[in-house]
Amino acid sequence: TVLVVDFGAQYAQLIARRVREARVYSEIVPHSMPVSEMLARNPKAIILSGGPASVYADDAPAMGPELFQAGVPVLGICYGFQAMALALGGTVANTGQREYGRTALTVTRGGSTLFQGTPEEQSVWMSHGDACTVAPEGFVVTATSERAPVAAFENDEARLYGTQHHPEVMHSSHGQQLLEHFLYRGAGLTPSWTTQNVVEESVRAVRAQVGDKRVICGLSGGVDSAVAAALVQRAVGDQLTCVFVDHGLLREGEPQQVEKDFVAATGVQLKVVDAQQRFLTALAGVSDPEQKRKIIGREFIRVFEQAAAEVVAEAGAHGAQVEYLVQGTLYPDVVESGGGTGTANIKSHHNVGGLPDDLQFQLVEPLRRLFKDEVRKVGEELGLPAEIVWRQPFPGPGLGIRIVGEVTAERLELLRKADAIAREELTRAGLDRDIWQCPVVLLADVRSVGVQGDARTYGHPVVLRPVSSEDAMTADWSRLPYDVLARISTRITNEVPQVNRVVLDVTSKPPGTIEWE
Ligand code: XMP
After folding, report:
1. Does domain 2-186 have CATH number 3.30.420.40?
2. Could you tell me which residue ranges the GMPS ATP-PPase domain spans (predicted)?
């Protein structure tokens, strides 16, 4: 394991991902973790991330020298670089001269461990106010920039390295190479974190955890639950039963993807609950988005609860007990909820939110260590269909929050058709992996006049909301080619009755959210 020490900026997750792209396993720990605890994890290397603070700020997190004396290879980045310089007796000056964004870096030691084989002049991403002016004793300066006289240093003998710029961001031209040099040359690691190994390890871990007990898993049609279920199926076979609640709010073809394609690919035992009517009844007359979300969430839990109780009862009739529930929790959720620091709590007893006390399950979370892109790779390795593995994000409440106004069976039908056309054309244009997602929204409470054939129509608009994003926290509207937009518009207005207008949402997030409700 490589530990990435998080100094509170948004870069730690990116560093961890880049390390894994170099096929070395990494985990994030908070800077508040005592050094003794970090070392107790036996890290093969440690990377100190950037941070928002100046090393001279009152609340600046410091790094004691112990970390650097343990014989573990360390790479300090940005704030971590400066904290390292200070801890080892170098000088960091509060110059007040900021260097921010794209910066020219001059490599002064071409043969150095970090920069070997990369150009003398590099374009890198900087973000700092203070600057290291004197490297600690025993270190050689390996690069400089206009406002950072010591922009990188290393002490090969002690296996300590540091750089002021951010090698993890894509704007740093040879950043990935620098990280790999640190990992392979500096720390002597070998690239062995492969998807195949991840699958094997996860399968082993699930088997060890579950033993001969029975497991239940809810499938939503999304990537995470599908990959989690497929992994557990690979590990314990028919000890797993999946439950799919068809709430009628999925897009065209999605229930079939779960009921046919997923089952065919994995051989999983599936219990399908057709709850379409129940959801429509519960949503009748409701237009308020928050109200809709609450109703959908509540009904979903009730239906799943009942299905789970039936699975438990059926197993009981055969003398077995269902003790585990699969959850598709991903690593970013674990880090963000502060749970990244320990693995001990994985097996503790949870009462899953909303499930009644007499249905207590322990959680199996096979994706808990993975980033989304890794989950997709695992899905491919397990042979899941591309339509599932590469599915774009889709909200839990489904089309229910893409109909502005009351949700009815007829409106769902219209929206499903319009959405299917948009998806088909985007796929045909090869744009699926360029955009984050493209919600299609039916403005059911809005009508506008049109002319179709020779007749006046009074129909509804649909909105196209294509966005690009890294993580859905912020997003920009995608500049789709006009001819693709034109094809989507023509087809929707021709093929979907009652829709006589297609409009494009050109709002970024913020201020607009991705979904309309
Ligand atoms: P917003 O609309 O908040 O959406 O910008 C951000 C991302 O989250 C998805 N989304 C949801 N996902 N349950 C989910 O599982 C929800 O209730 C939900 N609401 C929004 C949305 O599609 C986008 O990717």
Report:
1. no
2. 193-391
* Alpha-helical segments (H) within 284-408: 289-317, 331-336, 372-381, 386-389
Distance in Å, CA 165 to ligand 1 centroid: 34
DSSP SS3 for 445: coil
Alpha carbon distance 17, 82 (integer Å):
23
Question: Distance, CA 143 to ligand 1 centroid (Å)?
Answer: 44
Q: What's the rounded Cα separation, in Å, for the pair 395 and 412? A: 15
Considering the segment(s) 401-504 as one domain, its CATH architecture is 2-Layer Sandwich (3.30)
- Please tell me the distance from the alpha carbon of residue 39 to that of residue 71, in angstroms, as a whole number: 10
Q: Which token pair is 511?
A: 């201020």
What sign for the dihedral angle of Cα 91, 92, 93, 97? positive
270 within ligand 1 shell (Cβ under 6 A): no
CB-ligand 1 contact for 474 (6 Å cutoff) = no
Q: Where are the domains of the chain?
A: 2-186, 195-389, 401-504
The reply, when asked if residue 19 is annotated as ligand binding, is: no
Chain center to CA of 8: 18
| CB-neighbour burial class of residue 387 (10 A; exposed 0-12, middle 13-18, buried 19+) | middle
What single letter denotes the amino acid at residue 281?
T
* pLDDT one-digit tens code per residue, 298-327: 999 999 999 999 999 999 999 998 899 999
Q: Is 84 left (phi over 0), alpha (psi -120 to 50) or beta?
A: alpha
CATH no. for 195-389: 3.40.50.620
2-186 and 401-504 share one fold: no
Angle between helices 223-236 and 195-210 in degrees, nearest 10: 70
- For residue 401, which atom of ligand 1 is closest to its CA? 19
Planar angle of CA 305, 310, 315, nearest 5 degrees: 125
Distance CA 217, CA 229 (A): 7
338 marked among binding-site residues: no
**What's this model's pTM, rounded to 2 decimal places?**
0.86
Sign for the pseudo-dihedral over CA of 215, 369, 202, 232: positive
Q: What is the pLDDT of residues 115-171, one digit of tens each?
A: 999 999 999 999 898 999 999 999 999 999 999 999 999 999 999 999 999 999 988
Q: Is 219 left (phi over 0), alpha (psi -120 to 50) or beta?
A: beta
Distance 414 CA to ligand 1 centre (A): 22
User: Does the annotation flag 227 for ligand binding?
Assistant: no
Instruction: State whether the beta carbon of 435 lies less than 6 angstroms from ligand 1.
Output: no
